[in-house]
Request: fold
Amino acid sequence: MDNLQRIAVLIDADNTQIGKIEFVIREISTRGRIVVKRAYGNWQKDTLKNWEYELKRLAIKAEQQFDYVSGKNATDMALVIDTIDLLHSGIYDAFVIVASDSDYTPLAIKLHESGVYVMGVGEKKTAEAFRNACDEFILLENLGKPAREEVNKKKVALAKEENSRNRDMEAIHKLLEIAYDTYQDDDGFVNVSSAGTYIKRTKPDFDLRTFGYLKLPELLADFPERYEIKRYRGKGTVTIIAYKCKQS
Reply:
């Protein structure tokens, strides 16, 4: 979704990489207008001492949360309370939870049930439950370097992990087949955009960069034995790309 008007971004500094924050803001900004940017943490901790400069530079509001009990993290509770307050204001159409902590799963579910668009941003280690509770989940590992350079490096890394790549890719092929069976037109083709939307709804953490691609047509083109691709003109100067699953 790229037409959101009021996005609230809430960052758990205890569960986020400071070096990725600028890239997170850039990524979310491609979806729409960010109107709230808050980061939560006990800023007296040595582990968070380097955050001050980035928070000021990126105009992110720092929310102080003291640790009332030693060994217990109160940051997540403060973030949850503020998020629910913002939700009840009724003026935000999307919430972004930046954390790799599965404890935010109930919050994501509550937001989703309220009808707003929910995005999560975290590391690969983030529990599947939190990922699937969101409408969209962005991996921090996919952010931070020029897109083409990043995907090229990923292709090299993926080549070294062929078994894992094949297993994950087969899951994507299966979803592409389901989209084909569900959305094909009278000519037996499916709009790539429709298929991508379906996959994202089914698998919120789906990101083409994870597989070494920038666009879904690139992935389809790499499997000519599976897919036939068609391009045709839409309205104005728009080019529609569609695909057909070949019979095995």
The chain has a mean pLDDT of 88. The chain has two domains: 4-142, 147-245. The longest strand covers residues 32-41.
